[in-house]
Amino acid sequence: MATWNVNSVRSRLPRLLPWLDGRSPDVVCLQETKLPADAFDELVTPALVERGYAVAHHGEGRWNGVAIASRVGLDDVVAGLLDEPLNPGGNPLRAEARAVSATCAGLRVSSVYVPNGRAPDDPHYRYKLSWLAALRATVAAGDPARAVVCGDLNVAPSDEDVYDPAAFVTSTHVTPPERDALSALGLHDVVRERWPGKRIFTYWDYRAGMFHQDLGMRIDLVLAGADVARRTRAAWVDRQARKGSAPSDHAPVIVDLDEAPDGDCGPVVPPPSARR
Fold this sequence. Notes:
By secondary structure, the protein is an alpha+beta fold. The protein has a single domain (2-269), classed as Deoxyribonuclease I, Chain A (4-Layer Sandwich), CATH 3.60.10. Helix content is 23%, strand content 23%. It is built from seven helices and 13 strands. The chain has helices spanning 9-23, 37-43, 45-50, 123-141, 176-183, 190-194, 226-229; strands spanning 2-5, 27-31, 54-58, 66-70, 75-79, 99-104, 107-113, 147-152, 188-189, 220-224, 232-238, 253-257, 268-269. α4 packs parallel to α5. The radius of gyration is 17 Å and the shape is globular. The two termini are 30 Å apart. The mean pLDDT is 96.
């Protein structure tokens, strides 16, 4: 399975489809699709169906949007979270399109795009913590051992998941309440557990050559319940998809269960050409 914040599926479709053809994941979770339902169904769904995927999408237009595409079943699709909070600056009547869940080959898979939080003193920070609490309640309401939460969590789990902790001391993504909320999900961070102590990033800002200098963050995660985590055979970041023209600012994360067609590669493929 794989997860990828594509940062506009319309813009990234010329990269997404060849990537699917090359990597051929059984399940792929997408974030920041940035398309309403009708536009996604017209532009994206036919290409995914042609490749053998069933598709669930929860979108709203210019912002947010999440999807799951599966070749191994897509049952009991649910958009949103239990008691999902509202964005304090958004639509007062409707939750944002930040989560969609479905059962795929016996696993309860959720594609999530956690709110950014903006700044620790901003109302959106409290919204972020409330949203993570709703995600925890949603996972707990099912069978946590078979849960898989994939996506852009907008939290770096520890200081080793940012290029320089000192650069983030006044920022979101690294504060103790955010990290505690992530830990409270009670799931295994399968990439970090497989590669303890390794330099692994999934997001690099477009500005200032951050990607080429390997100045990034690891905020795109695959979090799995105990039954799923013990089946992990490979877990890695496909850095190749972040290279080239018109990329997303995120790279896909890939986790192989039961068998690993590409071998136990990783943690980042290919490794960065410049390290700092």
